[in-house]
Amino acid sequence: MKAERRGGTAPWAKVLGAVLLVSVVALVALFALSRVRESGREHDAFEATRADATRFAGTLVATKGVTPSDQDVRDALAAFPGRGVLVAARAGQHGTRVFVHFSRPYERGMPLFGPSDAMAVRCFTIELPETTRDRPRVTAHGPDVSCTTLAASAPN
Length: 156
Hints:
Blueprint: H1 11-64, H2 70-79, E1 84-92, E2 95-107, E3 117-128, E4 137-140, H3 147-153
Antiparallel strand pairs: 1-2, 2-3, 3-4
């Protein structure tokens, strides 16, 4: 009588299991690397919006002065090479406060179910000084902060 063999796995099943395991590990590693690179590109895009806002503030003061009108700000944005949109400009006791949002595109890592390009949009509050001797103060808000809501709730 022949003894029954239990607990053994066919060699082809072991090879198939190893190939599938290596494939899954490779996909997970590729996805993780893609996410890290996408995060880096998104961070670079947000930093580029900060540089755009700072450059814009300096240009605005240099060309339009410290008390620009809404139209002056729009004209400066039109002449400025960047993606800026004026939300509000308010004159206050200590200078003018301008709410602008800047955006920059960046490439997503693994665009499986959507577009390959994304947009980094950030709201900035630019406080123009009372005199041209002082530098404008640029405050970057988080990507989840609405510029319209911020401008509506900010005191003069």
